[in-house]
């Protein structure tokens, strides 16, 4: 992420109106409203980082991955899809392993030497007749123990024959458990996966639709480059080209979320710090206390996990495995005792509470403001309609929308800086940080005041205040981006930050009256050192 | 769902087959095909030898596609059995590892095998697991023998 993503709106950006690309830097451009749903545009943006996909696109994407592997490995699409599913759609790993040892990959995926379907049926028949003491009529399904005619039996490529009723029931039970992509053969110890076409033949339309839906869900869940949009009711999927570089991701529905943890975008907080903060907040409520007593969060997908029995080696639905006590992911830890005491925490309850409440109050306050300001979007839209009627030019009133969007961005960042500051040690660094936080806060409040005022807004004042707020937002982002987690802000690196802040201020304030602010800031910083 | 016919078949096979001296598997109530009771003979050579352990087996209508719920009704001192409730930690009884090819008879055999092969690394009974993990096999065996004598009619020797 670089600076604040507010691109200039101009007539030349018209082509973006129908595109579905959202790089993290142009998500303010909400022209995606006009976006029809199914077309993937790959021309407009210079370097696409994130693409919004609908259900059909996802199916196409899946088909594409299968075809790529099929042509690369020179095998059938069916084999390719089975290998991909076995490797949880991690294409790179599959390709790497396949070229190391194709036979091992094939056998791991339960694939035997390629054979024609007719031969397979013949083999299944042979086996069933040898199973059933010679006469085919004596054959009984080893699941329901009932006989079934030859045409009502099926086998996967492993050759374990069961009756179609049992296959159908097996699939239905698995789908109800939420599993569709990785249904195994029913034979003991057999890991061959059920091929989707068998489900299509054996299930009725309704059950198959459910099966297909779950299979697609698993495909997206398994795929490290894809995430469901976390907005309520939104069924879009976001695909990114690089996992590391795109933590803030925007959907066409307007949701901006963190790609790693699927929560609302939370810069400057890392996913782990946000979880720490949420847990701390939750510990005061009774629901939170229940969660603390009965559940823990998966460190990978951050969902709550309740231990419902068995040993302490947990497996989350996202596939992450860990020790319930110490969160170690080391499989060998599984066999070790887990009783090392945590490092002692020096604390005095009273001051700790006051310190926490300071940040907590501000965090909840800004969160509430953010909710209200998101409603301002509609109000601004109405005002703009009204004013367009009078001025006749839509362009003339667009400043209002830009101002509301900037306000929301400022508010969100401001909100998140409070938990961030909570975890920061009390150093000179924190002092500088608080200075900038204060400036961001006052310009945000000023902008909010202007936008919430009744009647027609003062155009020039709104434009100026927005510019100022945006500058503070950029400065804050720049400061935060140059550093890591809050607890690493120590005084040893204060010099470097001072430099980078004053440089950034000077390079970003072309106007004369900002020169004074810059000088003030520089002196405040140096006097503090 | 195939539960009923499959269980009827298992019932029929059990009543015609030669009785297994180590596993006695019966319907809890002759009118309910889904509720079973098993009596296991403590495996020879294990500290449970000489005891008779009762299991409660409840099958869901989705059986055999979903695993049956199996618990000990006789208290057992074993790392993978919760002493209070009789809950058993055994992979094949979990939906992920269960396959419909298992029968009630084979499940009982698996539970008997668990008695002779305690798995101390995933304990439900932590005290018992700790005894084994710390290498105090003598302590574990004598505790298990004592509980077997107390609850399962073992002679404690």
From TrEMBL, chain A:
Query: Record's PROSITE patterns?
Result: TRIAD (PS51873)
Zinc-finger among keywords = yes
UniProt keyword annotation of Zinc present = yes
Q: Name one GO molecular function term.
A: ubiquitin protein ligase activity
Q: What class of enzyme is it?
A: transferase
List where Acidic residues composition bias occurs.
Answer: 26-35
Any idea of its EC number?
Answer: 2.3.2.31
Q: Output the superkingdom of the source species.
A: Eukaryota
**Ranges of Polar residues compositional bias?**
10-22
Task: Give start-end positions of Basic and acidic residues composition bias.
Answer: 109-126
Q: Residue ranges of the RING-type domain? A: 137-342
Keyword terms, alphabetized: Ligase, Metal-binding, Repeat, Transferase, Ubl conjugation pathway, Zinc, Zinc-finger
Q: Which GO terms describe its biological process?
A: protein ubiquitination
Region Disordered: start-end pairs: 1-35, 106-134, 504-529
Q: Which SMART domains does the entry mention?
A: IBR (SM00647)
- Annotated catalysed reactions: [E2 ubiquitin-conjugating enzyme]-S-ubiquitinyl-L-cysteine + [acceptor protein]-L-lysine = [E2 ubiquitin-conjugating enzyme]-L-cysteine + [acceptor protein]-N(6)-ubiquitinyl-L-lysine
What's the protein name? RBR-type E3 ubiquitin transferase
What organism is the protein native to? Answer: Chrysochromulina tobinii
TrEMBL record, chain B:
In terms of domain of life, where is this protein from? Eukaryota
Q: Where is the UBC core domain?
A: 2-153
Q: Which keywords belong to this entry?
A: ATP-binding, Nucleotide-binding, Transferase, Ubl conjugation pathway
What Pfam family is a match for this entry?
A: UQ_con
- InterPro entries assigned: Ub_conjugating_enzyme, UBC, UBQ-conjugating_AS, UBQ-conjugating_enzyme/RWD
| SMART domains named among the record's database cross-references | UBCc
**Active site: which residues?**
89
Q: Which GO terms describe its molecular function?
A: ATP binding; transferase activity
Sequence similarity: Belongs to the ubiquitin-conjugating enzyme family.
This chain belongs to which protein, by name? Protein peroxin-4-like protein
Species of the source: Chrysochromulina tobinii
